[in-house]
């Protein structure tokens, strides 16, 4: 498999050449060829003197050679997932890293450790890891491998290496500064299109998400009223003789409708709502990715400007510019390829999820 | 089936119109008038239809008619009128009496009322009812001339009788319980149904929001665009379909409401029986006490304590002449009383017999009507589901093409 041979480095900061990177990113997602299977389950509560937190069991099964064993079982907490995500973002600033479930839920009275909250989070974390596993580049990331395989103490010591908090903060400051400086002048057309698309998409997906939640809420209220409706008919049948059977029949039908409504609601909450939420988060992520790309280009542009102004240190600047140009080109290509892939996935997800909703509704009415 | 008016005559309440006029205290008011059309049914139709007679009546005249019928035929379960004010509304329905939907449903209810009266074997023969349908002017005066208001039992009297009657016919007591239960369960059902309708409305209408956002979203998509847009269209169709569905359900609610009000008519018959029975019991008690008095005066023994007895002890006995006179008066009263009691007894038994016959007739009607109403409700639900299946099948196709 020649495309795999190109990828001989797990450290993303030293690509071989831009062209080979393109090959790498065009690696197709083929579920039949998947060789990494991950599950997230079994949430457990841990109470220490300082805090209470939840860990999840992460089980990995793989046939890949670079893994020492074919099965791994580790426990991870939310913090660990956050760490992984930030490492991936660091390593691949213009790749689309999947969203993590939020730290807290703002709306509603969802307790931090309520069963519903934990379950929703668990499912989202499971999705997160699997999306990374399916991504042609991210799946080979070293930090990802360590996340899946290292024991708790190994992970903590590994975490302590690498750029510290301060330098990461510096990066963020620079990123903010460059974005404050305004839009990038030499932004290629395609990225402006992407930006416009994302703005509209973000709006629309948020609205769709709100509508879906509203529908769920209305269905729940409908269900609550229906629960009372059936028994009244049974009560009535007690005073009647001739029509008692008809009334009891109506009562049982109404109860069946109730059950069907419950199924319909479950379909929404298990299928549609999580996916819509994921894409709401995705839209934020994509806006961030586009900004980072702009920022990288911004670095290049400012160095080019500096070159034009400073006559001395030409060689040094030229070399830096050369590197930055490479960087920009890589970043752009990475984003382009990943964008296409993301859009295809999105389409696929939307298609299947809405089709599923339609099917659920069909079953509901048939019942 | 006996020959009743409904078979000889087509009756419809075909129109409703807003009117303004001056009321009894000379204040301006708006009210709705309903057009009653009648046409004789030819038993040998030769393709020639009889001419249509019509006149306008307002709700208060219907009320007057019903009051007259209730008082004049107390042993009959008189059909109820549709509600005076909109009740059991859910948020989309207006509680306004002038609202066109309410007026329309009332029109249908009034027509139903007239048809029920016209098909009742006893009520349809009433002259006042006939002139209500056919005589435009002077009907009100005609009704008042019958003096029916005088015959009406006072509410207080009826209440008193209900509490104090000792031996009412068991069947009537049971019937009263039944009508209480019926009223309570139907009003509960209608309340919950209104809430369910409200929620269902919400579910359908929110889906309509999908229509607009899908359309806007499809504008930025290339491959997904068409599927998304047409799916959005189906969401709009889905959201719009609820209006018709719920309107049909209102008719079902109205059918139940009729029997909710019928419960009151049943209670009225029971009350009349209690009143008559109480009257009878009082008369019998009065007679017994008079007979006793008579006996005491005749034999000179005081069996029961009485103020008279005490005073006569202290102030001396009456003269024999006085006593004779009293006995004579009492004997006359006793005779009157016995005749009255006999006729009251007869009255009472007649009432029970004819009332119970009408009640049986009513029971059959009720069972038949309610069964039909429940069936039509089920049919409505099935049709709603079929529509749902259609919409979502279409939507599914659109989604799968995204």
From TrEMBL, chain A:
Entry coiled-coil feature ranges: 307-334
Any one GO molecular-function label of the UniProt entry: phosphatidylinositol binding
Pfam family membership, one: PX
Gene Ontology cellular component terms for the protein in this record: early endosome; phagophore assembly site
Annotated signal sequence range: none
InterPro entries per record: AH/BAR_dom_sf, PX_dom, PX_dom_sf, PX_SNX7
Superkingdom of origin: Eukaryota
GO biological process, one term: reticulophagy
UniProt family annotation: Belongs to the sorting nexin family.
Protein name as annotated: SNX7 protein
Gene this protein is translated from: Snx7
From TrEMBL, chain B:
The keyword Lyase appears for this protein: no
Record Pfam families: PX
GO CC, any one term: plasma membrane
Domain PX: 12-140
Matching InterPro entries: AH/BAR_dom_sf, PX_dom, PX_dom_sf, PX_SNX4, SNX4, SNX4_BAR
Gene3D superfamilies: Arfaptin homology (AH) domain/BAR domain, Phox-like domain
Keywords assigned: Protein transport, Transport
GO biological process: positive regulation of autophagosome assembly; protein transport
Domain of life: Eukaryota
Family in the record: Belongs to the sorting nexin family.
Protein name: SNX4 protein
Organism this protein belongs to: Sagittarius serpentarius
